[in-house]
């Protein structure tokens, strides 16, 4: 009986593994980079997006991927690099992207930045125009973003984005690379593409022999004002 159970478990596991392997199709869902690239954090799985604030497809992807990366397990992290194909035309955008990352304002600033480009025609490659726009912002802390933009490390981070753009041979946006190895092909829509990202993360995890960490604990729901008062009375 024990041998039968073991055999049955082995068959089920084999079916499960085969199903996972068949879920992704090379050439349709992803491409393998000709040369694996180093990650910023070697002990984790990197999901690296190359984007352009001037790219309408990046504008459409942005809210989808910003929401999705919040579901990543603890062994997976997201990094966003602005492409720099021409320093004279793109380095200013990369400086803005680096400032957004450094200030931790992606959720609030990105929608405003895309709207400014596509609706107001703001030229973020011009530092003077960028600074004036930051100072005028009311929907998020423009001064915090400006501080990051003017920081000592800002231009260095933008230059790093330029170096990675060249190193990875990025020629279109958006481009998403998982584990420094797999390029996501958005063959359907961006929502379906998030499933591809998850499956590629698991593929990298399996290849590296990593165990999937426990899910992140949910944040506790905020207490009502009445509950807080009652709690203070009972203490």
UniProtKB/TrEMBL annotation:
The lineage of its organism: Bacteria, Pseudomonadati, Pseudomonadota, Betaproteobacteria, Neisseriales. Residues 1-23 form the signal peptide. Keywords: Disulfide bond, Periplasm, Redox-active center, Signal. The keyword Oxidoreductase does not apply. Residues 216-235 have a biased composition (Low complexity). Its main location: periplasm. This is Thiol:disulfide interchange protein DsbA. Belongs to the thioredoxin family. DsbA subfamily. The keyword Cell inner membrane does not apply. Pfam families: DSBA (PF01323). Transmembrane segments: none annotated. It comes from Conchiformibius kuhniae.
């Amino acid at each position: 009986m024990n041998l039968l159970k073991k055999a049955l478990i082995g068959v089920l596991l084999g079916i499960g593994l085969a199903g996972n392997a068949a879920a992704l199709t090379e050439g349709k869902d992803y491409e393998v980079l000709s040369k694996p690239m180093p990650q910023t954090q070697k002990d984790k799985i990197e999901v690296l997006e190359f984007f352009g604030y001037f790219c309408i497809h990046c504008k459409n992807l942005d809210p989808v991927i910003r929401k999705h990366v919040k579901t990543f397990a603890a062994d997976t992290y997201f990094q966003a690099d602005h492409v720099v194909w021409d320093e004279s035309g793109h380095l200013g955008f990369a400086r803005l992207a680096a400032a957004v990352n450094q200030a931790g304002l992606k959720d609030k600033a990105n929608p405003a930045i895309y709207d400014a480009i596509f609706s107001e025609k703001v030229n973020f490659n011009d530092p003077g125009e960028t600074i004036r726009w930051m100072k005028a912002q009311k929907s998020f802390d423009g001064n915090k973003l400006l501080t990051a933009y003017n920081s000592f490390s800002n231009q260095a981070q933008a230059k790093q984005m330029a170096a990675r753009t060249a190193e990875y041979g990025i020629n279109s946006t958006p481009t998403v690379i998982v584990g420094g190895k797999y390029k996501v092909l958005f063959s359907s829509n961006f929502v379906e593409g998030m499933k591809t990202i998850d499956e590629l993360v698991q593929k990298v995890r399996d290849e590296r022999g990593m165990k999937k960490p426990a899910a992140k604990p949910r944040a506790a729901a905020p207490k009502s004002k009445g509950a807080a008062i009652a709690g203070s009375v009972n203490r």
